[in-house]
Design goal:
The chain is α+β, with helices and mostly antiparallel strands and 185 residues long. It has one domain: Aminopeptidase, CATH 3.40.630.30. Helix content is 38%, strand content 28%. The chain has helices at residues 18-26, 28-31, 42-53, 109-121, 136-145, 162-183; strands at 3-5, 8-12, 58-65, 68-77, 89-96, 126-132, 148-151, 155-161. A hairpin with a 2-residue loop joins strand 3 (58-65) and strand 4. Helix 4 (109-121) crosses helix 6. The radius of gyration is 16 Å and the shape is globular. The model has no long low-confidence stretch (mean pLDDT 91).
Length: 185
Amino acid sequence: MILQGYQVTLTPVGEDDLDLLRQWRNDPDIARQMLSQEPISEEQQQAWFKKISRDPAQQHFVIRFRDEPIGSANIKACGPGKTLKTATTIEPGLYIGDPRYRQNILAFAPTLVLNDYCFEQLGVQQLRAVVKATNTAALNYNQKLGYRTLNSGDLVEITLNFEDYQQHTRAMKALLSRSATRTNP
């Protein structure tokens, strides 16, 4: 399944994407924000791909802007035995691998596409994320999307419902949609 909107396209991860994804994931700037910071080997990346390729509880995407890969996004069902089709809560995740787009409004586009998909097509009730307390950029980013803090400590648990998401992203969605019309006559 391909997801599109707000100037970006999310395509399912394929074998041809694995080297680039591993390179991005092993980048120190990205790895330091992950719960697991160990470098990933080629063998580990292949094993991961084999596992996720047949798991109905998760989907992984390459984020593309103007047909160029710029990052990675994923969603995972929360709860034992849940699939993406049966889950009421989903945990999204993403990172922008291309540094040119990390501090840019475009960085919000893949999240908007993914969240729209989760709420509007999968019909989930809430999104949930766990972020390192030291990752203030991610916490601020998620706050702008409407996430609320549930628990905090070394790890901060945050949740988002559809109503808060709609309210907090209306202007952002309009801006990204207007930009798309200007660049795609």
